[in-house]
Each structure stands twice: as C-alpha cells, then as structure tokens.
Specification:
- One of its GO terms (molecular function) is RNA binding.
- Keywords: RNA-binding.
- InterPro entries: S4_RNA-bd, S4_RNA-bd_sf.
- The chain is about 25% helix and about 35% strand.
- By secondary structure, it is of the alpha+beta class.
- The protein has a single domain, classed as Structural Genomics Hypothetical 15.5 Kd Protein In mrcA-pckA Intergenic Region, Chain A (Roll), CATH 3.10.290.10.
- α1 crosses α2.
- The longest helix is centred in the middle third of the chain and has 9 residues.
- It is globular, with a radius of gyration of 11 Å.
C-alpha cells in the first residue's frame, strides 16, 4: 500500500487518482471510475467527485493507495 499525502483536508476521487500517479489524465480517471474499476474503502465507487479524506483507501487494478494528510509527496 502506497501512502499519498494531500495538502487539503479532502480531495475528489478523480483528482486523487491524478495526484497519486495512478492515471495520467482526468479523462482517464473519469473513464475508470464510470466503468466501476475503482474501489474506495472496498466499495465500488462510480462518482468522480467522491470526497476522500485521510485514512480512505483507494484500489485501482491491483494498486492500493491510502489517503494521508501531512508532508508533501
């Protein structure tokens, strides 16, 4: 599991996928999310504007990321 540090208290799912490096573009994030290929806290998430907070866990095609607050990436 890779910790991904954010500077704000929350972040949208599509923005998080870009910030973490899991996807290259927002368009790619939008497609993956709408196809149900992204999980947040073990639940399929199809809303790209889903707010993530520190402690949330995002899964995408075998990669697992934890949202963390604090130091920069």
């Amino acid at each position: 599991m890779k910790k991904v540090y954010i500077k704000t208290s929350t972040i949208n799912l599509d923005q998080f996928l870009k910030w973490s490096g899991a996807v290259s573009t927002g368009g790619e994030a939008k497609v993956l999310i709408s196809e149900g290929r992204v999980r947040v806290n073990r639940q399929v998430e199809t809303h790209r504007s889903k707010k993530l907070s520190p402690g949330d866990v995002v899964e995408l095609e075998g990669s697992i990321f934890e949202v963390a607050r604090g130091r920069e990436n």
